[in-house]
Write a structure and sequence with these properties.
327 residues, alpha/beta, TIM Barrel, eight-stranded parallel sheet, 46% helix, disordered N terminus
Length: 327
């Protein structure tokens, strides 16, 4: 089987590597990757019995592949990665890699709570085909996650990662913003190529772009609701949940921004804000999966303890899409 082989090879030498001071060239140095563009953070489909439905995953991937995405983010927040086993996380990434053209980037979420577990998962993600690793902030002990602790964590991961690392700040889920000073320090690491910032603070995004402008560091907006503003401030793309259901429209917004058609971009951005809020802040993954069912994809159930929408919530979600002309 895939996973036992992966783990046996990963564990050899990692304990020794984590126990020493790593000051040499990181594994991924010299392999800078251009992450600019739009990515849907893919959901994980489940069957009625809560098993991962790999067939539906591939069906969704083939449909999403008709849009001009730069690639796909797998095992981000929308992938329900905290509810998956390590085996499932790796198998999902492996299946997506097998079904994805080589010219599409595959960014895999590899974050875990401990540094050692994150390194092991990151190496494993590389072995099953990920082009880059997206590493969420560890947050269980958020009261002790100072800038120094986070810089140490990400530096160790990046030192030992065979693929480039993308920082991931998602305070709505973690209760923790990756501090700007930590981002600035980490941007100097040769194997850390950028950040996905999902906080929605465009002032912060602009500051990160400004303070890292001398580094080869790229900022991705973490939501379609502030994509235009992020592009205006120097972001290079977005990882947008809404792209799972309105992929053509999110890519169109990207094109309008990149070609300086700001009036048309503003009009489109306005129409995307309400449905975006609905599938992120208001109803989250259950709302996104319901919208996927409506718009020709397989959303299906979430894995417990996430619950399905109530009929009232469904009606509200539908209203946000119909009022803006998407249903």
């Amino acid at each position: 089987m895939l996973v036992p082989q992966v783990w046996s090879s990963v564990r050899q030498g990692l304990s020794r590597g984590l126990s020493r001071n790593v000051g040499g060239r990181p594994s991924g140095e010299g392999r800078k990757v251009d992450i600019s563009g739009i990515y849907p953070p893919m959901t994980t489909p489940f069957t009625a019995t809560a098993e991962v439905d790999y067939g539906k995953l591939e069906e969704n991937l083939h449909k999403l592949g008709t849009f001009p995405f730069k690639g796909f983010v797998v095992q981000g927040s929308n992938g329900e990665f905290p509810f998956l086993t390590s085996t499932e996380r790796l198998e999902v990434v492996s299946r997506v890699r097998q079904a994805t053209p080589k010219d599409k980037l595959l960014i895999a979420g590899s974050g875990c709570e401990s540094t050692q577990a994150t390194v092991e998962m990151t190496v494993s993600m590389a072995q099953v085909g990920a082009d880059a690793a997206m590493v969420v902030t560890p947050c269980y002990y958020r009261g002790r996650m100072s800038s120094a602790a986070l810089i140490h964590h990400y530096t160790k991961v990046a030192d030992l990662s065979p693929i480039p690392v993308v920082l991931y700040s998602v305070p709505a889920n973690t209760g923790l913003d990756l501090p700007v000073d930590a981002v600035i320090t980490l941007s100097q690491h040769p194997n850390i190529v950028g950040i996905k910032d999902s906080g929605g603070d465009v002032t912060r995004i602009g500051l990160i772009v400004h303070k890292t402008r001398k580094q080869n560091f790229q900022v991705l907006a973490g939501s379609a609701g502030f994509l235009l503003a992020s592009y205006a401030l120097g972001a290079v793309g977005g990882v947008c949940a809404l792209a799972n259901v309105l992929g053509a429209q999110v890519c169109q917004l990207e094109r309008l921004c990149l070609t300086g058609q700001w009036e048309d971009a503003q009009k489109l951005q306005h129409r995307l804000i309400e449905p975006n809020i609905a599938v992120t802040r208001h109803f989250g993954i259950p709302g996104l999966k319901k919208a996927m069912d409506w718009l020709g994809y397989y959303g299906g159930p979430c894995r417990a303890p996430l619950q399905e929408l109530s009929p009232t919530e469904e009606d509200t979600l539908r209203m946000h899409f119909t009022n803006n002309g998407w249903l």
